[in-house]
Specification:
By secondary structure, the protein is α/β, with parallel strands linked by helices. The protein has 2 domains: about 150 residues, Aspartate/ornithine carbamoyltransferase (Rossmann fold, 3-Layer(aba) Sandwich), CATH 3.40.50; about 150 residues, Aspartate/ornithine carbamoyltransferase (Rossmann fold, 3-Layer(aba) Sandwich), CATH 3.40.50. Helix content is about 45%, strand content about 15%. It has 13 helices and 9 strands. The strands form 2 sheets. A 5-stranded parallel beta sheet has the order 7-6-5-8-9. A 4-stranded parallel beta sheet has the order 2-1-3-4, with helices on both faces. Helix 5 crosses helix 13. The longest helix is centred in the C-terminal third of the chain and has 30 residues. The radius of gyration is 19 Å and the shape is globular. The chain binds N-carbamoyl-L-aspartate. The site of N-carbamoyl-L-aspartate has 10 residues, from helix 2 and helix 6.
């Protein structure tokens, strides 16, 4: 269980339903900013945000960078190679050094689960988890919720299938927390080797057959299949995986007409999703990317902007 302080966003379980609703509402008004000719508001003027990324990432880093810039914060990108990673001391030194330069928020992506939470204890600045190991990816789950709220109004009572490599997916973990908290019915779908035992024991619905449950779904959320899983012997072959779990045209025929298809990206066309389905209007993949900027603006504003206002009020 991780928490982080009030200043930090480490995982979804620290947020109340009201706080999630607030983020969704605020993202809605920030989305409008992104549609203006001048895409900027002064909400975080004078603040410094550092993106500290120990894993390759394009979309998440750029999304955070755009979000901070649209709120008028100054942004620095620190991209470290993962070779300097597991050394706790050097991570601490990096965090303390950045803090000494006067940053206000550190957006952290790290291959080790728990790294952002550790950093949040070392520094006073806000720490926002941008994905840590197999643990959590809270802003991804928030942007997914936001995308669904825009389309469905609310996800209360809706059926969502999370399909694929649940075991290794921080996106799945954060989405299970977020969607359950907001009242959705979740079905975890995938081969038994990729579904964690704890999940099955926790009482969440599990199905090894995508075909059996696809007709019940309001939302199909596909996860990226990491190719190394085949080398690890967790799936027999990519073709075999695709035969049972790929969302292709034929399988989609069994789904409801209005089903929403989502994926956090990057996608492997031809593995978890067919090229054709990825480009259909009911695939919300690019909406998720667009919405990611607005949601990260709301998150940065919540953890940085409001803090400042409260501190100034105290003076
Ligand atoms: C996800 C991640 O890195 O956790 N992608 C992302 O944030 N855009 C999902 C993935 O890599 O499969």
């Amino acid at each position: 269980m991780t928490r982080g302080g009030e200043k930090d966003l480490i995982d979804i379980d620290q947020l109340s339903r009201e706080e999630i609703d607030w983020i969704i509402q605020t993202a809605r008004s920030f989305e409008e900013v992104s549609r203006r000719a001048v895409k900027k508001v002064p909400a975080l003027r004078g603040k410094t945000v550092v993106n500290l990324f120990y894993e390759p990432s394009t979309r998440t880093r750029m999304s955070f960078e755009l979000a901070a810039k649209r709120l008028s914060a100054d942004v620095l990108n620190f991209t470290a190679s993962s070779s300097s990673v597991a050394k706790g001391e050097s991570l601490k030194d990096t965090a303390l050094t950045l803090q000494a330069m006067g940053l206000d928020a550190l957006v952290v992506r790290h291959p080790v689960s728990g790294a952002p939470e550790m950093i949040s204890r070392w520094i006073d600045a806000s720490v926002i988890n941008a994905g840590d190991g197999m643990h959590a990816h809270p802003t991804q789950a928030l942007l997914d919720l936001y995308t669904l709220h825009k389309e469905l109004g609310s996800i209360e009572g809706k059926t969502v299938a999370l399909v694929g490599d649940i075991l290794h997916s921080r996106v799945a973990r954060s989405n299970i927390q977020a969607m359950t908290k907001m009242g959705a019915r979740l079905i975890l779908v995938g081969p038994p080797t990729l579904i964690p035992r704890e999940v099955e024991e926790s009482g969440l619905e599990v199905s090894y057959s995508f075909d059996r449950v696809i007709g019940e779904c309001d939302v199909i959320y596909l996860l990226r299949l990491q190719r190394e899983r085949q080398r690890e012997g967790l799936i027999p072959s990519l073709a075999e995986y695709a035969r049972f779990y790929q969302l292709n045209r034929e399988r989609l025929e069994k789904a409801r007409q209005e089903v929403i298809v989502m994926h956090p990206g990057p996608i492997n066309r031809g593995v978890e999703i067919s090229a054709e389905v990825a480009d259909l209007p009911r695939s919300y993949l690019l909406d998720q990317v667009t919405n990611g900027v607005a949601v990260r603006m709301a998150v940065l504003f919540k953890f940085l902007g409001r803090r400042e206002t409260e501190a100034e009020g105290e003076r």
